[in-house]
Description:
This protein has 18 helices and 15 strands. By secondary structure, it is an alpha/beta fold. It has a six-stranded mixed beta sheet, sandwiched between helices.
Amino acid sequence: MVRGARQPQQPRSRLAPRLTGTVEKPPRKRRSRDLPQYGQKQWQSYFGRTFDVYTKLWKFQQQHRQVLDNRYGLKRWQIGEIASKIGQLYYHYYLRTSETSYLNEAFSFYSAIRQRSYYSQVNKEDRPELVVKKLRYYARFIVVCLLLNKMDVVKDLVKELSDEIEDYTHRFNTEDQVEWNLVLQEVAAFIEADPVMVLNDDNTIVITSNRLAETGAPLLEQGMIVGQLSLADALIIGNCNNQVKFSELTVDMFRMLQALEREPMNLASQMNKPGMQESADKPTRRENPHKYLLYKPTFSQLYTFLAASFKELPANSVLLIYLSATGVFPTGRSDSEGPYDFGGVLTNSNRDIINGDAIHKRNQSHKEMHCLHPGDLYPFTRKPLFIIVDSSNSVAYKNFTNLFGQPLVCLLSPTAYPKALQDQSQRGSLFTLFLNNPLMAFLFVSGLSSMRRGLWEKCQEYLRKINRDIAQLLTHSRSIDQAFLQFFGDEFLRLLLTRFIFCSATMRMHKIFRETRNYPESYPQLPRDETVENPHLQKHILELASILDVRNVFFENTIDDY
């Protein structure tokens, strides 16, 4: 950023990090005698100052143990508020770095508040603003637990939050009662968004993880020729109307976020495994790609973050753009077929004001100003770009032109689903579910709503075999566009590509997916006979259906049925 220039306006989303995309170095470590000893008034005024988040985080790292041991004579709710703010800082630090360790730190602080009952005395106070602090703490704790996939803790927190909101509404007649009840409804709908339950033998629900595990992505076999690009940055954008959300995080955004995270591992056990020791001269691998989470951004805000991420993208790295948004269709007929003539996806128009009035009506000869057209992304194709579009007008991005010769792939969702599945759209898109949890999506389209854990694990193992075979189909294909292979060296992108092909092949074989618009597409196009319509892959899908006893919902002789 140019020194002295006005800093761009931040998006509305509280989940979005700052623009830099880089991690600032903390100040030089100070000696213990230089650490400030805050009293009660100093602590209260301290949080009112606008220090940079990293400075505050560094100071608290030096002192948080003293704070939680109550060495400053504060009230218990004040200690809880301090610990809550520390947890919030760790959470924001996670958003800037995408390092799961910071989420774990935030979880430890929030857990300490709950275990030590720091907010226990708040309910005895007659000040509603203190109770609101406690409710906000619960909301933040729930977000951290969702990102860590601690669903058992989430359910306990939701029950406690429900009791706290009920007590709050009975004691105080405030204007925000409806808003807090809406928060409760949102989080309840969010944790129930998965269409299939995995059950233990005692009918308790199994918590499944959709992060990239050690054996998640298919391994590259010796002799496979793929690119050496790695996924560095990802923009996850959500602008779907009426989709379940919590804290400005939609279900689709959450699922894609999980798909771009590695499963946390015990470093000691990892290094003790045979073949896991890495040479000293090998560069350390980044744990997760850096992610920007943008909930309903305006076009200018989205473009600002795109430009910032593009600027900071390292060499031999990939920028991923995930768009989950309402489709914008072209109005009228156009004599040309350029990158602005097919529509695109909608950005937020509520905050783009011209002369004091929001612009809603446009001349039909003009393009929609709040639409992200394929042509808007052309400048960013100067570097490797991987695009996923989940929208009713995703096919607009099929009309890309690779102007600069850099690797470019677009994975595009179906533009419509069979009527039997349309009622489930509020709980998230089926296409994104396939990219996040393909087995759950397969069960859903097969009409299953629950499954025993043993069968689930058996099917997961078979699905890993399918992914390995899909990887071989891609790398052995003689007619596939080289852009796919350029991205295939990265584990995250390799898994997304194999899941995309599995999704497309499943829908093409399913009896209720009969229209062309029911199928995913891609740019460049995949060779169908070697990938999504390959007889070997179709046989695997039928065998998976046989394991689940749902073979009747798929066509047997698929090639003959087209």
